[in-house]
Amino acid sequence: MRFPTPLVPGRLVKRYQRFFADVRLTGGRLVTAHCPNSGSMLGCKEPGSPVYLSHQTGRGRKLPWTWEMVRIGRTWVGVNTLWPNRLVVEAIEDGTLGELQGYAGIRREVRVSPRSRLDLLLEGGSGRCWVEVKSVTLRAGALAAFPDALTERGTRHLRELIRLARRGQGAALVFVVQRGDCAAFRPAYEIDPEYCRWLHRALDAGVEILPYRARVTPREITLTRRLELVL
Fold first, then answer.
1. Lower Cβ count inside 10 Å, N or C end of the chain?
2. With a cut of 50, which residues of the chain have pLDDT below it?
């Protein structure tokens, strides 16, 4: 996935009220950017960190700036949670995500219950496979970890995937690790033990758990390879 226009560099001043970030652009101008990430962003919101923003104007936009990535040490970390779904679709279509091949069609945001939608439904000669996608930015030691905050919504998605898998349908959970400095992936037991218990139940029920690392640069983000799942 290439960014359609060049990103603009700056330094993070602060992130606040979940969806806002003040950024000092390289030329000195202070702007308020939309933060498309509802998580805690633990470890990814240190004031003074180098960041990149995208700029887009259009009808319905209150803020033309969007926070796309932050540099942690020497690594760029993608913080925009809107991109992982697109990255997974691209990786299915180009064959990078080999575990989810054999389906002719992809539907997005499909309702599975009165309270829940799942991100993707794959359909074709191989039957059906329901896919939920999660964005991962947290690094714990040398490992990527999820979640970075309590997530009742994430637990609800796990219960839906378990229900579908027990009915004989394909079910998969793809963790998109938006940073290249993690050797493997693990559940963040210390942050949300209830979510992690349901993740173990999902594995036992036959839900496929697929952590994939992304290569993040100011020009593009692409899925590269599957990471080891450490339980």
1. C
2. none
Torsion sign over Cα 151, 157, 163, 165: negative
Is the bond leading into 147 cis (omega within 30 degrees of zero)? Answer: yes
Phi, psi of 102 (to 5 degrees): 95, 10
Separation between Cα atoms, residue 129 and residue 100, nearest integer Å? 8
Residue 33 confidence (pLDDT): 98
CB-CB contact of 136 with 144 (8 Å): yes
Nearest one of 73, 81, 72, 77 to 18, comparing CA atoms: 81
Question: Dihedral, CA atoms, 103, 205, 175, 39, nearest 10 degrees?
Answer: 130
Q: Which of 179, 183, 195 is nearest to 146 (CA)?
A: 195
**If you ran DSSP here, which 8-state letter would residue 6 be given?**
-
pTM of the model: 0.96
DSSP H/E element including 203: helix 193-205
Query: Rounded distance, CA 45 to CA 126, Å?
Result: 42
State residue 53's pLDDT score.
Answer: 98
Please state, as a whole number, how many other Cβ atoms lie within 10 Å of the Cβ of residue 159.
Answer: 14
Q: What is the pLDDT of residue 58?
A: 77
Q: What pLDDT, on the 0 to 100 scale, is given for residue 59?
A: 73
Report the amino acid identity of residue 11. R
